[in-house]
Write a structure and sequence with these properties.
It is built from one helix and 27 strands. By secondary structure, it is mainly beta.
Length: 368
């Protein structure tokens, strides 16, 4: 597994001034309050959800970061900077960060690297530990800090500019936009084959489509289990190894109930068909050659009892891109925060667009 890197103090240089990233009317964000932009990237909240668990109320935001430069861009989340504030003045603090590396003190994780013109998602959860009788709000603002990580010679790095991002306008009557900023003609990022395709998520090297959602109920206690079968398709020209980040699956229904894997301290055995990645180990058995596809199934559960339950579901999971080193060690390349909305139980065929891309790759491989 890729270790976190300690930054020698000599690489830090002079104090770096944080810049506030606000949407500009004439920029990529075009005045969208769910979008923030700076010189090097734009950041757009593509999904915002509310839920609750025994610890309190949760809100989750998926943020799509888009590289505006003509070179690679590495970003990290500044640990402890994430705050959500509702219209009652309650503060929700970041409790979970997925897919983007974190920066804390003199250490950082440089796994979130965007190619020129590339966009990729990170997911943030914020928790408010309410006491009985406290009133919660219905509209929200999100604040967090992201910092650039600059590569130096011989594999060294140093911290670059820090950007304070703010997003507003979220709540019960205000949904986040469906997609991030539109790429310009000069950008090098591949087109999104999942654009306009339901239950499909594009993660750059692969597409991940929900092809089945099974809902089952077990009594007593009215325990509801959701099983999402996802088809992963390698759309690149190199072999791809993927793994599931343990305990990262989360479901939320349309009345705000939260569906999870296992309780803290219990091994996550809720996935089938794909290897599990933990802090100590990584199963690299899920390999996809170019033009190939495989499925895996992810389960989440909710002990409903007498509570009202929904009929439409959102689902999130973190998929880890892995690399097998010559020494047979496994290295984490990066994480991908998959996210789906408004899914109902059913069975579906794979996207014809994705199938066409897979067939094209297979055809190219057969050419002399």
């Amino acid at each position: 597994m890729q270790p976190r890197i300690a930054i020698p103090l000599l690489l830090l240089g002079p104090a770096l001034v944080a810049s506030t990233a606000r949407a500009q009317a004439d920029g990529d964000c075009a005045g969208d309050p769910a979008c923030a932009e700076v010189t090097t990237f734009t950041a757009t909240v593509t999904d915002f959800r509310e839920s609750q668990n025994p610890s309190g109320r949760l809100v989750a935001a998926t943020i799509r970061f888009h590289n505006r430069t003509d070179g690679p861009l590495t970003l990290g989340y500044v640990t402890g900077s994430g705050i959500v504030t509702d219209d009652q003045g309650n503060r929700y603090r970041a409790s979970s960060v997925r897919a983007i590396g974190q920066i804390g003190g003199n250490t950082f994780d440089p796994k979130f690297v965007l190619a020129p013109g590339e966009a990729s998602d990170a997911r943030f959860e914020f928790l408010w530990q309410a006491t009985q009788g406290q009133i919660f709000g219905t509209t929200y603002e999100v604040d967090l800090a992201v910092r650039e990580i600059e590569p130096l010679a011989r594999g060294q790095h140093r911290l670059g500019k820090e950007h304070a991002l703010r997003f507003t306008g979220f709540g019960q009557q205000s949904d986040a936009p469906e997609a991030g900023p539109v790429a310009s003609e000069a950008e090098q990022a591949p087109e999104d084959p999942c654009a306009g395709v339901e239950r499909c998520f594009f993660a750059g090297p692969f597409a991940a489509e929900i092809v089945r959602l099974n809902r089952s109920v077990v009594n007593p206690h009215n325990r509801i289990t959701l099983e999402f079968t996802i088809r992963f398709s390698n759309l690149g020209r190199e072999p791809l190894i993927l793994g599931y980040k343990s305990r990262s699956s989360i479901g939320v229904d349309d009345v705000g109930n939260r569906y999870v894997t296992t309780r803290a301290g219990v091994r996550d055995n809720t996935v089938r068909g794909i290897g599990v990645v933990t802090g100590q180990s990584a199963d690299a058995s899920f390999r996809l050659d170019p033009g190939k596809a495989r499925t895996a199934t992810f389960a989440v559960r909710f002990q409903a009892g007498r509570r009202q339950v929904g009929t439409r579901y959102a689902f999130d999971a973190t998929i880890v891109e892995l690399e097998l080193l010559p020494s047979n060690q496994v290295r984490t390349v990066r994480e991908h925060a998959l996210g789906y909305r408004d899914v109902t139980p059913g069975v579906w065929s794979a996207s014809s667009i994705v199938e066409g891309l897979l067939n094209s790759l297979i055809g190219d491989a057969k050419k002399p």
